[in-house]
Amino acid sequence: MHPSQSELLKLKNLGLASVNILHSIGIRSLEDLRKVGPVEAFISIRNRGINASRVMLYALQGALMDVHWNDLDPELKQQLASEVDRLLATQNSD
After folding, report:
1. What is the CATH number of the domain that holds 59?
2. I need a surface site. Which of 36, 57, 61, 94 has the fewest CB within 10 A?
């Protein structure tokens, strides 16, 4: 197992499948995830044709906050979802 893979696997909400997906978009460490952020990471995942649900978005945010995704504040979840929707709408209008 690659060291960065084990680093990501130690984060809340992230299992091997999620870590492999993150690797596919170039996120190999916690620092990479912090730099990109959960919204951009989620959009990159979707842009690769991976059918990720909003749970993945919330899981990424929760991983950064060391909180189970289901325990995130509902307002934060709504804010994340709205930002994704806004960015995806911008992409689709180009």
Report:
1. 1.10.150.20
2. 94
